[in-house]
């Protein structure tokens, strides 16, 4: 496990979703940065050095599944976990995560305790 607060970068084009996730995760002790556009995600990731990047799958300009490859190509963050985050069908989300070699996937239908559990499990 990590000896410091877990840093999470959340990428989602929905401002309400970003706000809610920030509040929930910060209450659970995570350090959270958010990005509401796929543009500049690699720069933010390089400067913030997150343990986990939580990527919304359905961002119109550039979807989270396509962003994973770009982030990996443009950063040197080998230990950062890339996680797809979506309200889409579980089977579709799982398959998409496997196709893009994401480190995990989490459905948006969650509660704070379950989200925390899933995020921490990715780091073990």
Would you summarize the structure shown here?
44% of the residues lie in helices and 20% in strands. By secondary structure, it is of the alpha/beta class.
Features:
five-stranded parallel beta sheet; 5 strands; Rossmann fold; 20% strand; 124 residues; alpha/beta
Could you characterize the architecture of this molecule?
This protein has 124 residues and is an alpha/beta fold. It has a single domain (7-123), classed as 3-Layer(aba) Sandwich (Rossmann fold), CATH 3.40.50. Helices cover 44% and strands 20% of the residues. It has five helices and five strands, in the order βαβαβαβαβα. It has helices spanning 15-27, 41-48, 64-74, 90-99, 112-123, and strands at residues 7-11, 31-35, 52-56, 81-86, 104-107. The longest helix has 13 residues, at 15-27. It starts with 6 loop residues before the first strand and ends with a helix.
């Amino acid at each position: 496990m990590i000896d410091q607060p877990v840093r999470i970068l959340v990428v989602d084009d929905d401002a309400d979703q970003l706000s809610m996730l920030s509040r929930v995760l910060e209450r659970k002790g995570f350090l959270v940065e958010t990005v509401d556009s796929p543009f500049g995600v690699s720069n933010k990731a390089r400067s913030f050095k997150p343990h986990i990047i939580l990527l919304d799958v359905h961002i119109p300009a550039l979807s989270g599944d396509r962003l994973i490859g770009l982030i990996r190509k443009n950063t040197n963050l080998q230990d950062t976990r890339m996680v797809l985050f979506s309200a889409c069908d579980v089977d579709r989300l799982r398959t998409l995560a496997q196709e893009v070699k994401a480190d995990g996937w989490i459905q948006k239908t969650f509660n704070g305790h379950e989200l925390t559990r899933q995020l921490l499990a990715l780091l073990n």
